[in-house]
């Protein structure tokens, strides 16, 4: 034992390196434990309600814990204290440069906080953005929101960009989702017949459910004759469905059923065509 003490006294740098390694290992273990406990607590809370505030707070807590842990490790050893002072304290010039470089990050963090407070959507909601992209909100972090699209496609959108967009929420503060669908029929069609045929086809779908609030409880969305188009009469309705059902599946089934129902009832679905007039030589 005396020999070991004598060795470390003769080689103080080696002792400091060993202490730094032990500090890193111990801090890593503590941080890992804290993050696991935080993740378990967050899962229990999000199982009761997918709350976007909880997801954002979870990301913020992780960032703060890891940042403080790194700072503690660097400042705990004489070998790294000088580097830590430059890194965490710095001069005015360094702080200004770092602040300028971190502007997008700070903007994303602030916009993420605003999104979590105003809550234009929640975890599990399906939203459509003004640029045409759409998906189910899967998560929010300090910097971005992830949207699950079809199959394995995931859209990662910075909070600052998303916060400035027009957002269409398919199930805002509702238990069910909905999608607005339009169908064109020929001008010589009886609108009442077309509305009845389309409404029956929607109700026959295994994916559509009563979701429109009414005096007698929830019902199916009515079909409306909403527009005279260039070559068709436009019928429209709102289809309600369970949040666990992909929107693309609902649209595909409804479109297939409406097409078949219109064909069975002799209702024409118009399409654009061009008449070409050929002028021959004069006699």
Across the major sheet, the strand order is 4-3-2-1-5
Q: Helical residue percent?
A: 40-55%
Rg over C-alpha atoms, rounded to the nearest angstrom: 31 Å
Main sheet overview: 5 strands, antiparallel
Structure description:
This protein is α+β, with helices and mostly antiparallel strands and 283 residues long. 51% of the residues lie in helices and 17% in strands. The strands form two sheets. It has a five-stranded antiparallel sheet with strand order 4-3-2-1-5. Strands 6-8-7 form a three-stranded antiparallel sheet. It is elongated.
Short description:
The protein is of the alpha+beta class and 283 residues long. It has 9 helices and 8 strands. The chain has helices at residues 2-10, 12-48, 52-75, 78-89, 92-101, 103-118, 159-163, 191-204, 247-264; strands at residues 126-129, 134-140, 144-148, 154-158, 167-169, 177-185, 223-228, 233-241.
Question: Which short descriptors sum up this protein?
Answer:
about 280 residues, alpha+beta, 3-stranded antiparallel sheet, elongated
Chart the SSEs and their pairings.
Blueprint: H1 2-10, H2 12-48, H3 52-75, H4 78-89, H5 92-101, H6 103-118, E1 126-129, E2 134-140, E3 144-148, E4 154-158, H7 159-163, E5 167-169, E6 177-185, H8 191-204, E7 223-228, E8 233-241, H9 247-264
Antiparallel strand pairs: 1-2, 1-5, 2-3, 3-4, 6-8, 7-8
Helix pairs in contact: 2-3, 3-4, 3-6, 8-9
């Amino acid at each position: 034992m005396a020999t070991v003490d004598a060795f470390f006294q003769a080689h103080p740098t080696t002792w400091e390196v060993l202490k730094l390694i032990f500090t890193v290992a111990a801090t890593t273990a503590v941080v890992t434990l804290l993050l696991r406990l935080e993740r378990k607590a967050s899962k229990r809370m999000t199982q009761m309600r997918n709350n976007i505030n909880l997801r954002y707070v979870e990301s913020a807590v992780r960032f703060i814990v890891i940042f403080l842990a790194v700072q503690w490790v660097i400042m705990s050893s004489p070998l790294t204290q000088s580097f830590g002072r430059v890194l965490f304290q710095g001069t005015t010039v360094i702080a200004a440069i770092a602040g300028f470089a971190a502007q997008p990050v700070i903007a994303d963090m602030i916009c993420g906080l605003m999104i979590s407070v105003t809550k234009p959507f929640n975890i599990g909601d399906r939203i459509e953005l003004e640029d045409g992209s759409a998906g189910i909100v899967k998560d929010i972090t300090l910097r971005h929101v992830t949207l699950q699209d079809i199959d394995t496609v995931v859209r990662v959108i910075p909070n600052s960009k998303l916060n400035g967009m027009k957002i269409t929420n398919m199930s805002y503060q509702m238990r069910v989702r909905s999608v607005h669908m339009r169908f064109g029929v020929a001008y010589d069609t009886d609108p009442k017949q077309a509305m009845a045929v389309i409404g029956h086809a929607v109700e026959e779908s295994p994916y559509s459910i009563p979701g429109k609030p009414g005096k007698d409880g929830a019902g199916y969305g009515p079909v409306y004759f909403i527009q005279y188009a260039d070559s068709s009469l436009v019928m429209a309705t709102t289809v309600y469905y369970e949040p666990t059902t992909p929107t693309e599946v609902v649209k595909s089934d409804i479109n297939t059923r409406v097409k078949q129902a219109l064909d069975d009832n002799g209702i024409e679905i118009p399409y654009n065509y061009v008449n070409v007039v050929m002028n021959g030589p004069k006699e």
